[in-house]
Amino acid sequence: MNQPPPRHQNLVYPSGLSPEELAALLSGEPAYRANQAFAWFSRGATSFESMTNMPQSLRERLSGRFGGSIRSSSVEHSLVDEDGSLKLQIRLRDGAAVECVLLEDIEGRKTACLSSQVGCPMGCAFCKTGTLGFLRNLGPDEIVEQFHHLRDMRGFISNVVFMGMGEPLLNLDNVRKAIAILANPDGIGMSLRKITISTSGIVPGILDLARVGPVVRLAVSLTSANPELRTRLMPVNKTWPLAELKAALLEYQRATHDRVTLEMVLIGNVNARGENALELAEWIRPLRVQVNLIAWNPIAGMPFETPDAGQMKQFSEILERSGIVTVQRMSRGRGVMGACGQLGDTLRAKQ
Ligand code: SF4
Question: If one looks up domain 74-336 in CATH, what number appears?
Fold first, then answer.
C-alpha cells in the first residue's frame, strides 16, 4: 500500500479553517471577528462580499489572502438519477477531481456521501474507485466544500457518510478537521451521531479513533469473513487480517460502547452464498453489530454479477436466525453511477 504523498498545495481555504486558525489569521482584530468569519465560512458563504456584518477592509484583507476566491473547488458536472440522487463532479484547484453524492431515502433523510482522497490506494476488486489508483489526500477545505456544493443545490442535509472516494482512515487528520467544522454549533452544527466514517479495515485508524475520537458512527466494509476470499476482494486483509480487525473492533466497542456497522457488498455467486452467511455469523460473535447488505452495483468491465433477490433474502435470514440485526440497503444513485463502489466512472485514472 502506498503512503499518501504530501498535499499539492499547502494553503487551506476558508471553509477548512477552525475558529482558532481564523483567530490566528485575523490577529490584531477583535476576537469576535474570527467567530463571525467562522460562522460565514462554515455555513457555506460563497463570496467575501456577502459577509456584511464585517467591515469592508476586513473582507478585502481576507479576499486578498485567498486570491479573491472563497472556495478552492468548483462543480464541473452534476447528474440527477431518477431516484433523486445527485452526483457532483468537483474540480479541485490543482486540476484533480473527485465525486460526491447526495442520497435521499424514503424517510426524507438527505445524506451527503463525501470523498476523502483523490482516488484510493486500497484496490478493492469490486470498486470502481479502486481502479483509479491514488493521487493524494483531500484537505479539510476540500472535504467541507463537497458538503457545501451539495447543500447549495439541495438545501438542508441531515447526514454525512465518508463513503465516497478514498479511505478516510488514511486521511484521518483532515477528516477529523472537517468533522469538527461540520459539527461546530457556530456553523452547521451537525450531530456527531449523524456522521459515519466507513473504512475498509485500517486497524491503526480504528484504534486511533477509539482513543482520540470523535465518537461518530463507524462502519467497516467487511465483504467476507473468509480470509482467502476477503484477501482476494480486499487486499487490505493482507496487511490487517480478519483477526486483527476483530480485535480492533472489540477495542473500539469497549472505548465507545457503540455498535459498529458491517457493510457487506454482496456479489452474486462470490460472497453471497449461504455458507458465506454462516461464516460471517460465526465471525461476528461477540461483536455487537448491525449488518448492512448491499447488492453489488454493476460496473462495466468488472467480472462480477449482482446477486438475485433470493440470494439476498437467504443471506439475510441466516444472519437474523443467529440474532444479528440485518438491514438490506436499497441501492440508490445507480442510474448516475453514484451508488456504492461506482464513484469515479467519469474520472481518468491517475489524474
Ligand atoms: S471500496 Fe472504498 S476503500 Fe475499497 S477501493 Fe473503493 S473507495 Fe477504496
Answer: 3.20.20.70
